[in-house]
Design a protein that fits this description.
Layout (H helix, E strand, L loop, with lengths): L7 H55 L2 E8 L2 E6 L3 E8 L4 E4 L2 E4 L4 E3 L3 E6 L10 E7 L1 E3 L9 E7 L9
Antiparallel strand pairs: 1-2, 2-3, 3-4, 4-5, 6-9, 7-8, 8-10
């Protein structure tokens, strides 16, 4: 026998192993790319969530809410005692979320639900203390990552005797 080359069986085995390795590496690449995209989407959603909450919380921490009025579908005017007014809205025609002077694009895959604003009292509280809260919930999700919830939940606590809020 001549031992200078590879036999047909050795070549078939080598090509089979190479094909299997190429398949495994390509599947791994596809999986990692999908995970990268999912993480990128989550990062963008968390960033938008944080910015929206920061804008609302800044006003809630520095101003007194006087009234909340509806200005259309998914649109609210929040008036402050400091003679300031901010519009909180989801503009579905332009695919934009707005709060005051902040606006962000609602990408095609993002799902913004109906804004819910509620006011509740804690019950009887003695003295001049915080006895009520205003809750703003902005449901946000993503169609490719529907198991994650990116809702914005802002709570404003107030004394309904000193600073009543009208609806």
């Amino acid at each position: 026998m001549n031992n200078r080359g590879f036999s047909v069986v050795e070549l078939i085995v080598a090509f089979s192993l190479a094909t299997i390795m190429i398949f495994v590496v390509s599947e791994l690449t596809i999986f990692l790319r999908a995970e990268y995209n999912k993480i990128n989407i989550r990062s963008e959603m968390v960033l938008k969530q944080a910015i929206i909450l920061d804008k609302i919380a800044h006003d809630f921490n520095n101003k007194q809410v006087a009234s909340v009025n509806t200005c259309g579908d998914n649109c609210f005017e929040i008036d402050f005692y400091e003679h300031d007014m901010k519009v909180l809205m989801i503009d579905e025609e332009e695919d934009i979320f707005r709060y005051g002077n902040y606006a962000t694009e609602i990408k095609e895959e993002m799902i913004f639900g109906t804004i819910v604003i509620e006011s509740e009292a804690y019950g009887s509280v003695a003295g001049n203390k915080i006895d009520s809260f205003l809750k703003i919930r902005i449901p946000i999700s993503h169609e490719y990552d529907s198991d994650k919830n990116f809702d914005v939940l802002a709570i404003y606590q107030y004394n309904s005797s000193s600073y009543p809020i009208s609806f």
